[in-house]
Amino acid sequence: MVGLKEELLKSIWHAFTALDLDRSGKVLSHNLCTVLNVPHDPVALEEHFRDDDEGPVSNQGYMPYLNKFILERVQGNFDKVEFNRMCWTLCAKKNLSKSPLLISDEDAFKVWVIFNFLSEDKYPLIIVPEEIEYLLKKLTEAMGAGWQQEQFDHYKIALNTSQEGLSAWELIDLIGSGQFSKGMDGQTVSMAINEVFNELILDVLKQGYMLKKGHKRKNWTERWFVLKPNIISYYVSEDLKDKKGDIILDSNCCVEALPDKDGKKCLFLIKCLDKSFEISASDKKKKQEWIQAIQTTVNLLRAGSPPPHKEARQKRKELRQKLLAEQEELERQMKELQTANENKQKELETVRKQLEAAAARAAEEEKKRLQTQVELQDRFSLELEREKMVRQKMEEQVAQKSSELEQYLQRVRELEEMYKQLQEALEDEKQARQDEETVRKLQARLLEEESAKRAELEKWHLQQQQTIQMTEAEKQELENQRMIKEQALQVAMQQLEQLELERKEALEQYEEVKKKLEMAANNTKSWKDKVAHHEGLIRLIEPGSKNPHLITNWGPAAFTEAELEQRQKSWKGKKATSE
């Protein structure tokens, strides 16, 4: 069932990608249920395609519904051709090329179904060059033409440089263009496509006209036989419209050749558990082909193997997977080798740099060593020269010292002679010193007398200087006192002037205050006169009435409330009289 599901998914994928599921998802799901003979589930369908934001109408949301409610319920009792035709109808109009093709729409449909069978099990669907070559070879063989391997190799090279494989519509364009069927008419190509379609899709292992002997009347009737992996069906004609019966094949069936009899030739017998069928082929070649094909089918049933074309496809697929795995493993190993090589290169580069650094250090050390050696040689030469010079100088000094020694000895002799002379001179000097001592004592006495007189003169001079300094100090003090008095006098004069100004300002202020007092007095006198004239209130202040007094903002009032009412009446009367 897994293989069947994969085959169905490929056709559904074309229809699925060609439709807008928001509008046509219900149509696709309904059609799938119809052609696959799956019971409808309207509730699940409406729930899935409900028109709201939470509905799972999306490329991701549709697949769970498809698996759960459709594909898992498929039993295999459906017409594969009808199913593929429904999917083809939904996607062909949108994707089929508009350019004219050498094949009919029916042939294009069959090529599309063959593509789904041969394509890889990954999406988007493509058919790889190996499967394209297999299909083109089958078509060329069915057309009876020779296979042009060199032509396909050129095409394969051009294809590999641009893409991994072809889509279904590109494959239809390739076969419909006639690129690999040149010289063949459209009918031949159509027949070849139909033959390959019957073999790969309808599992038709062999088909053709043969005579069959009836079980009741025992007469021989020509029928169109179709051999499939587990059944032989026979029809009235090759249009497959009027089916007459089936021969069910299983592992217990067998086929054997029969001798000619009753005027019939090329006979063979198919034995089953319940029935046996006698069949007559048109010639010995056909007979042998049919026997071999039926026997191969029975052997496959006994072994539980798939049909030859499916087994071959599986082997090609496994081979490609193996080659791909080997290629990936090779690429992985190449990457590992490349990585290892890069690491080695890096290590070698590091070692090279280290060697270069070591060589540079060695060269620098060698250079320093040579320089040191040269310096040592120069220093040794200098020291050697210096030692020679020192030795030469020492020799010269020794010679000079010898000469000086001779001179010294001569000098000693001279000094001894001089010593004798000095002894004599010392005696003379001693006498001279005694005379000098006498003279010195006389000079000392004279100096003492002179020193005493000088001290007395200095004392008198010092007293005179002190007297002069005292006179100068007193004069300076008097001058300072005079300056202080003059400064005090100036300050007193300034204070006097300031007091005079302040006196004048005080007089001016006094005059102004006096004027203001006179004006205030005049104003007060005029105010009292006005009050006395208008109100007649001038009277002596007397003790107030014992009645309660009014309180104003300035304190107790000078009249009672009754007096206030009386005066108000008086004012109102005067006011009325004046008006």
Automatic annotation (TrEMBL):
Q: Which CDD domains match?
A: PH_SWAP-70 (cd13273)
The chain positions of domain PH read 203-299
Annotated Pfam families: EF-hand_SWAP70_N, PH
Q: Which residues form a coiled coil?
A: 309-530
- Positions of transmembrane segments: none
Looking up InterPro entries in the UniProt record yields:
EF-hand_SWAP70_N (IPR057836), PH-like_dom_sf (IPR011993), PH_domain (IPR001849), PH_SWAP70 (IPR057837)
Q: What is this protein called?
A: Switch-associated protein 70
Gene expressing this chain? SWAP70
